[in-house]
Amino acid sequence: NAGVMQNPRHLVRRRGQEARLRCSPMKGHSHVYWYRQLPEEGLKFMVYLQKENIIDESGMPKERFSAEFPKEGPSILRIQQVVRGDSAAYFCASSRPQGGDEKLFFGSGTQLSVL
Amino acid sequence: GESVGLHLPTLSVQEGDNSIINCAYSNSASDYFIWYKQESGKGPQFIIDIRSNMDKRQGQRVTVLLNKTVKHLSLQIAATQPGDSAVYFCAENIGNNFNKFYFGSGTKLNVKP
């Protein structure tokens, strides 16, 4: 009974490189959410996706950040031309379709470090 | 923007004592709340939830209280154990906002043996 799977756990990038973070939701879950967490802070909502659709990206920076959840495969959070300020823990969560269990179940996160 | 805040950033309790973690929210339209526990290096783990049509909900060793009048939420942990040491977040959801949750900044619970 695998939970939400995120990889990699740790990702180191130099300024200007691209970062790709992957998230496989729990079995039976079709909703995916990405959150960002800075040290000693709470989680900040970034984006909410369903299969092949971005439902709400109001928390995502307009530039350099993008997210997708294709019909097949994991959800991807992509950060282009990373800067030091992108260093953070990025958590993915999943839930069942609305009207069912609304709880978010989180993965273990990807710690992104930008050198 | 964020509308959830916590009264105490750090709470130290003796093993065996009861713990109370508080949370204030500002959006009166919030109708669903969750408490999460986050251990170091891990993702948030669901503890207990409550809907706005309830005042109290109990789980195993945990109780969540909701006071809508003053927009206050609390998590009570009975007989606190060392394994309860973690950061605790309350998260609120506004019903018309799908499953977008707003998280507070967290309270760190230290359990002293």
In brief, what are we looking at here?
The complex is a heterodimer of chains A (115) and B (113). By secondary structure, chain A is an all-beta fold.
Overall 3D shape of chain A: globular
Radius of gyration of chain B, in angstroms, nearest whole number: 13 Å
Structural class of chain A: mainly beta
Biggest sheet character of chain A: 7 strands, mixed
Beta-strand residue fraction of chain A: over 45%
- Helix-strand pattern of chain B, N to C? EEEEEEEEEEE
- By DSSP, the count of extended strands of chain B is 11
Considering DSSP H and I runs of 4 or more, what fraction of the residues of chain A is helical? under 10%
Give the overall shape of chain B.
globular
Quaternary structure: heterodimer
Helical content of chain B, roughly? under 10%
Q: Which pair of chains has the greatest number of interface residues, and how are they split between the two chains?
A: A-B, 26 and 25 residues
Radius of gyration of chain A: 13 Å
User: How many individual β-strands of chain A?
Assistant: 11
Description:
The complex is a heterodimer of chains A (115) and B (113). Chain A has 115 residues and is mostly beta strands. Chain A is built from no helices and eleven strands. The radius of gyration of chain A is 13 Å and the shape is globular. Chain A starts with a strand and ends with a strand. Chain B has no helices and eleven strands. In chain B, strands 2, 4, 5, 9, 10 and 11 form a six-stranded mixed β-sheet that branches. At the A-B interface, β4, β5, β9 and β10 of A face β4, β5, β9 and β10 of B.
